[in-house]
Amino acid sequence: MSRFPPRPRQALEKDVPDFRKRHRRDSNKKRLTKRQMKNPEHYRIDNKTPEHKKKFIQNLFNSIVPTYDLLNHVLSGGIDMIWRTNIFRYLETVKNNPAIDLCCGTGDLSKLLYRKGAKLVSLDFSFNMLEKGNKKVFLQGASVAADASNIPFKNNSFHTATIAFGIRNIPDLDTFIKDVHRVLNNGGQLAILELVKPEHRFIGFLYSFYLGTILPLIGGIISGKQFAYNYLSKTIATFINPFDLQTMLEKYGFSKVKHYPQTLGIATIIICKKRNSLVREL
Ligand SMILES: C[S@@+](CC[C@H](N)C(=O)[O-])C[C@H]1O[C@@H](n2cnc3c(N)ncnc32)[C@H](O)[C@@H]1O
Q1: Ligand 1 pocket test: which of 43, 59, 101, 124 has the largest number of ligand atoms within 8 Å of its C-beta?
Q2: 104 in ligand 1 pocket by Cβ < 6 Å?
Q3: pTM for the predicted model, two decimal places
Q4: Apex CA 41: angle with CA 40 and CA 47, to 5°?
Q5: pLDDT tens digits, one per residue of 52-74
Q6: What domain range is 265 assigned to?
Q7: CA 204/CA 138 separation, integer angstroms
Q8: Which residues pair with 104 in a beta bridge?
Q9: Considering the domain boundaries, does residue 245 fall inside one?
Q10: How far is the CA of 124 from the centre of ligand 1 (A)?
């Protein structure tokens, strides 16, 4: 007698589509492998947890380093440099005070902070970005490879923290804001520069078109990583609006939050100060 009783007919029929599904999955795997062969640093978006998302973002930035600076200036028409400089119009002096530039990338903002006399630490979790920044000699203070939501410094270490074009990539915003608050001294200042959706409807419409088509196209042609630029432009459209960000900043102990919209409202600079107690009673 056979050890395995024959399976009912119905069950056998059910197996067929299962097999086909498996087969389809296998051929998908093959297609992915071909793509990987064309583009060795293939990306895997897996945003189940902040850690997965961070790994994805880290790989993405590691892979676009060679053309990152060029594309930044091309895609913004060079205005990105003006925006970074504008931060210093709204910040209190940074001279001789300890400062940390979070998500420093290749160091365009770090360089300005250093020139203004800050005792500077530049932090980023992409080794390739830091390496390029060091080659350009833009990271003249200390540079640290670390997660901006888990800053490896003691409480009250800095008087100034800055983050340019980095915050929209941070999945655990609450943790990030609490940690920046922790490393700032009382009365310390935080400056955030970020691309945002313009409030004006028509400008918003033009900007969405630019983000959805032109930016990924030019980004793709110059870097060869269209996927990366598609993703980065989506993060602008999906990032929380600056006033919700203000609410979070206030919740976690920042006050005197001020917004300074830049160039038709496509970017904004937010400046705020550390209050002494951490969580505001709501
Ligand atoms: C768009 S670039 C901006 C670089 C630079 N601040 C500038 O003004 O050009 C964003 C940078 O944030 C870094 N980054 C993103 N998430 C991070 C995190 N959780 N911790 C540390 N660095 C992060 C990326 O590696 C990348 O270098």
Answers
A1: 124
A2: yes
A3: 0.82
A4: 135
A5: 889 989 999 999 999 999 988 88
A6: 77-196+240-274
A7: 34
A8: none
A9: yes
A10: 6
